[in-house]
Design a protein that fits this description.
154 residues, alpha/beta, Signal recognition particle alu RNA binding heterodimer, srp9/1, 4-stranded mixed beta sheet, 36% strand, elongated, VOC family protein
Length: 154
């Protein structure tokens, strides 16, 4: 695990108990991805099961992402916010551009599995290949194929 270099602006994703699963899934999809830091619950953290991921920092496609799990029901932190009301929605989305059709298709298939597709992968007027979907964790993604990846038409 590398030491994280704090970016001045990073994406922060809050999950309802499956942050580590999501982090591992996302880092498996990108060739340059890595987990930078993991903070786990200690035995003395009220309400938490020891070893449970509390915060994680990882990098995908050159972008640092911070993730966390909401506090468990027995945690005193439950009193400071309505944690169960916080959900992801498609108004906030991760945008990623792929440089080959093969990379695009592989990422699309992995993210679409168990998720919800809004715009299926195909050519649109603004892109040679584009897709918009929510993955199995509720994170919205827009995947775009670089126009340089498509040979010019004669």
């Amino acid at each position: 695990m590398s030491n994280p270099v704090t970016q001045k602006l990073a994406i922060f994703l809050m999950f309802q108990g499956n942050a580590e699963e999501a982090m591992n899934f996302y880092t498996s999809l990108f060739e340059d991805a890595e987990v930078l830091q993991v903070i786990r619950a200690r035995a003395e953290d009220p309400g938490w099961t020891e070893g449970t991921l509390q915060y994680g920092i990882f990098r995908i496609a050159g972008q640092q992402v911070v993730c966390s799990n909401t506090p468990p029901p027995d945690s005193p932190l439950r009193e400071i916010a309505p944690w169960d009301e916080f959900t992801f929605n498609p108004a906030m989305t991760m945008y990623v551009q792929r440089d080959s059709v093969e990379d695009f298709d592989a990422l699309y298939e992995a993210l679409a599995e168990g998720g919800r597709v809004y715009l299926p992968a195909k050519e649109y007027g603004f892109s040679p290949r584009f897709a918009w979907l929510d993955d199995r964790y509720g994170i919205s993604w827009r995947i775009d194929l670089s126009s340089e990846a498509v040979p010019a038409r004669p």
